[in-house]
Amino acid sequence: MKDRTASSSTTEKEIVGKAAANVIEDGMVVGLGTGSTTAYAIKELGRRVFEENLEILAVPTSYQSEMLSIEAGIPLTTLSQHPVLDIAIDGADQIDSDLNAVKGGGGAHTREKVVSMSANHFIVVVDESKISDRLDHYIPVEVLSYSRNLVCNQIKTLGGNPTTRMATRKDGPVITDNGNFIIDASFGVIEDPLSLSKELSGCTGVVEHGIFHNVSEVYIGKKDGSFEIIS
Ligand SMILES: O=C(CO)[C@H](O)[C@H](O)COP(=O)(O)O
């Protein structure tokens, strides 16, 4: 499992987090993702709200991004009030050359998918380590707790190796912001992300999986302090 603490890539994450935050303009309604890279975007947006009187509303994707946004002074709204967002900004665990992404390392991919699918433009912010020719990252799958064994069996039938994600500071499984379990499913190198995506969506008991096909642009932070945008 990935270490979610700050790492040597902190600087690259900060560069792209800030760069994405600087795309946001007055009057926009923005989706705010979850994770350490998006946290830099949230911090920068808070600075712009405070210092530049930037007028925005934001929809957070998790308790983490809600708490960070409140702390940063960003006014929040909901998808009920604003069903269509201008831009969503979020991190990713892996992204391939066709801009298929794996998300959910932080367990927030269900709301992240709902928020990013509600946005006209979806910017993903990553450091170079997240870029890969082909996806081989485990796929987080949020499931109803009641359906855990059934989903594990369906994942095995699809050729995957399922593991229930366990909490680190509590005994037992991780419980998502939606009150569900997460199964991390390894498939090795994924030859066809779109068909795996459809197969996982078709499994009974699955709430949402972490393969995303709706990325508009990827901001990639480099070790030399620069960043590249691919779309
Ligand atoms: O999908 C996510 C949370 O569910 C995160 O965006 C993803 O795990 C990347 O996190 P980080 O920016 O900390 O590397």
UniProtKB/TrEMBL annotation:
Keywords of this entry: Isomerase
Q: Which SMART domains match?
A: DeoRC (SM01134)
Organism the protein comes from: Methanosalsum zhilinae (strain DSM 4017 / NBRC 107636 / OCM 62 / WeN5) (Methanohalophilus zhilinae)
An annotated GO BP? D-ribose metabolic process
Protein's UniProt name: Ribose-5-phosphate isomerase A
Which InterPro entries does the annotation name?
NagB/RpiA_transferase-like, Ribose5P_isomerase_typA_subgr, Ribose5P_isomerase_type_A
Q: Please name the CDD domains in this protein's record.
A: RPI_A (cd01398)
Q: What does this protein do?
A: Catalyzes the reversible conversion of ribose-5-phosphate to ribulose 5-phosphate.
